[in-house]
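WARN no homologs supplied; continuing
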Amino acid sequence: MKMFFKGRIICLFIFLLLFVRVSNCEVVTPRLTIVFVIDQFSKFYIDRLKDKLRAGLGFLIKKGVNYDNAYHFHAEPDTATGHAAINTGVYAKDHGVVGNNWFDDSGKKIYFPDAEDNKDYAVFDNSGKIFDFGRCPDRLMAYGVSDSFVLNPKSGKKNYLYAISLKDRAAIALAGKTLKPSADDSCKAIWFEGKNGRFTSSKAYFDSLPKWVNEFNDNKKIYNLKTVKWEPAYKLDTSFYRFKNAFNYDFAEKEKFIGTDVSVYNPDKPYPYKYFGYTPKANDVLLDLAEKCIDNTICKDKNSNLVLWVSLSPLDKLGHIFGPYSAELIDIIYHIDIKLERFIKNVQKKIDKAEILYVVTADHGITAIPEMMQYEGAKGAVRINAKELLDSLNSSISNKFEVNNLFIAIENKQLFLDKKIFDKFDENKKNKIRRYVKKFIKSKKGIKDVWTYSELENKCCDKFSVESYYKNQLYPGRTGEFMIHVEPYCQISNHPKGTAHSTPYESDTHVPLIFYQKGSFESRVIKDKVSMLQFANSLAEILRIPKAQQSSASVLPGLFLEPVVL
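OK structure emitted
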């Protein structure tokens, strides 16, 4: 009898094994992947506004797979750095984009995508000719998931990849390094050019600007705009805007924009159309361009796939001026919510909804305005004027060591020194100067710590320690000699008002991460603390392509569900 029951149990066990089902083993490889990188979109915004997001963004939050604790684990979040990390799955210590700008060993200021006057990478102007400056991804030192996608099409298929943004640095960091201008199925970057009020690209990506981009420019006629009326998404006297300090402009860089005619053209400025990107209309136009891109790629070529990065920049531009609590920031998120609903509906008329993957994330968050935090009672909050700090440091070094103008800049909370001067000193003098600089900087209110490059490079750090965040942004020849760590709500800035996002604190590093694909990725909240470096390889897994070449990050937990026994 015992043998009988034992045999029955064994049979039952084998039977159950035969009927193990892996949830999501039926994941459909998306034909269209749209990744919305909302610039400066702190997770704080979703937590604050979720109940009021009732359209497209609200739909993706409600229906998607939500990672509640996704972080950029680097100390000085910036647009170029964050976008590069999302694509490559590695930190700046590997991808090399330590900020939007840095200084090289010769003391020259470098803008990440700047190709200077290289005619091979020249930017197209409104007549189809070229500007006397160029843009390219040559300073991006790591290949990303974008490159993997275009280099690994399925047999008989064509893979298109486009990255569009108001910012050249965002589009270029997302598009990756694979350059083949004459090919349709290679990484392409398109951005808005503030010099001429048009969307453009460079010869790094196209032999000539595509006809559909020129048609789009001539249809929208942004270059004819002088002002843009900022109509609120809802009535300003309703609960949608009843948040503390929403209409407090005492600490903002400009007077209120919402409900006014915003001037978007100034012929006296180097970038006359710059302020178009500070209006809700700019997001509308970006999403219209995204739809145009879809129409001119996979809608025309049925035997193809498209990864489309859409970097929505206006939130970031406004955040620097008004801070995260302002009505302008609240309202532009409502506008994104509303516009996304129309965009999603339009796209799903063209592509089967089960074949579309949507992702929502961000390159970084935002810190509150220091003076506003002082006003609210955070007495330790302080703004440190970068120029005054640099001048006082150089003056003190001159008095102490008889060395003039040793430091050339403070950028990304890093101190860059003149290496031609410093390298002449013996090691003893160098160490004396290093110790003096650390003591001088740490004596200032709002400074928590200072490290030299070599200290961080040789330091053993816990994975989630502040030191490790700074260490993740060390790149030879690009990172400064000293890294400055500020107290919470403190900033080193040349701006007398407004705010930034250059700290390792929660507000700057915690971002949304949401996946939604009908029937494949739906309706889950995952609480695990995850790194945004995991995104690139997770996307590669979904697309069934090789992972980003230099990334060792694991796939996000819970994205593909664990086996379930039936």
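Residues 327-348 form the longest helix (22 residues).
OK
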